[in-house]
Design goal:
metal-binding; globular; 2,3-Dihydroxybiphenyl 1,2-Dioxygenase, domain 1; 2 helices; alpha+beta
Length: 128
Amino acid sequence: MLFNKVHHIAIICTDYEVSKLFYTDVLGLTIIREVYREERYSYKLDLALNREYIIELFSFPAPGKRPSRPEAAGLRHLAFEVNDLDAVVEMLTAKEVASEPIRVDEFTGKRFTFIADPDLLPIEFYEK
């Protein structure tokens, strides 16, 4: 099997402070890191459950309402942790599934790419 587990869930909220309070105070998730990305007017809040990173909470100015867009309100993408990103891309290509060019996470230095499911939900493959 090429996939290990779900790596994280990314959510774009429409009211950052309300959502931050909900995920931390109501659900009890702990904050790993909170970053304000000034160039994007966007917060990125990394949250953990039982010390395991599970959610990225994003804010963007006036997010769109279409759930298939990468920066629309709602589920942003589903991410799978993989051991070998090149092998995953090769497998996807063999099955005629197009992937985006491989990128590098600016915070972790790890490589990742995205595909779209049949309903255009973004799915990420994130190298361990």
